[in-house]
């Protein structure tokens, strides 16, 4: 009778090891210890630590892009509603794939191997989509921006990315409530940003 697969346990353990120790310091020995298996057993599933990192980040990255494409195709709601759904979606993925989603955020900038090119492209598409959403809101008059859509989009993404330092999943309802609080904070700046820019310019240098 074949042995049951330990793959799902290995992925969870790898996510925790990469999150706690960072990719460079993480070891296959440490990952194996979290599962209760030897390092050699991990090689039955992957050929290297880099390959294991790829497996950890693949699911949350692809889910994020799929959800983003769905929102981009939604033309029946206002920009503000779509932005709220985007933030809800992002927080939901953080909860569903915790801590793997944060391993992705921590490592996207250093994924230089050719195999990670797909993820760098996903990251660029994600940023471009948010920038386009912000720009659309400015064109329709929903948003009054304090800066360019490019800068504002990066500020919104920065709010979400920083969650890797403090977010702990609390369940679907509590996580959605948190997402809506973040949306309210971001929306305040998006709606009033242009007016606030005029006020700040009146301050003495």
Automatic annotation (TrEMBL):
Keywords: DNA-binding, Repressor, Transcription, Transcription regulation. InterPro entries: Homeodomain-like_sf, HTH-type_TetR-like_transc_reg, HTH_TetR, KstR2_TetR_C, Tet_transcr_reg_TetR-rel_C_sf. The keyword DNA-binding applies. GO terms for molecular function: DNA-binding transcription factor activity; transcription cis-regulatory region binding. SUPFAM superfamilies: Homeodomain-like, Tetracyclin repressor-like, C-terminal domain. Residues 27-46 bind DNA. Pfam families: TetR_C_24 (PF17932), TetR_N (PF00440). Coiled coil: none annotated. Residues 4-64 form the HTH tetR-type domain. This is Transcriptional regulator, TetR family. The lineage of its organism: Bacteria, Bacillati, Actinomycetota, Actinomycetes, Pseudonocardiales.
């Amino acid at each position: 009778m074949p042995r049951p697969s330990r793959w799902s346990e290995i992925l969870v353990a790898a996510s925790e090891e990469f999150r706690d120790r960072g990719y460079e310091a993480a070891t296959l020995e440490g990952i194996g210890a979290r599962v209760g298996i030897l390092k050699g057993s991990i090689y039955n599933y992957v050929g290297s630590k880099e390959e294991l990192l790829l497996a950890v980040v693949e699911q949350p990255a692809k889910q994020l892009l799929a959800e983003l494409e769905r929102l981009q195709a939604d033309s029946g709601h206002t920009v503000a509603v779509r932005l709220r759904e985007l933030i809800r979606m992002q927080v939901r993925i953080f909860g569903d794939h915790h801590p793997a989603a944060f391993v992705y955020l921590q490592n996207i900038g250093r994924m230089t191997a050719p195999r990670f090119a797909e993820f760098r492209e996903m990251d660029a598409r994600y940023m471009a989509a948010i920038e386009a959403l912000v720009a659309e809101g400015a064109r329709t008059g929903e948003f009054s921006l304090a800066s360019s859509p490019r800068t504002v989009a990066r500020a919104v993404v920065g709010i979400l990315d920083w969650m890797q330092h403090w977010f702990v999943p609390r369940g679907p309802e509590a996580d959605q409530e948190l997402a809506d609080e973040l949306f309210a904070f971001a929306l305040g700046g998006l709606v009033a940003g242009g007016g606030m820019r005029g006020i700040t310019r009146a301050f003495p240098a």
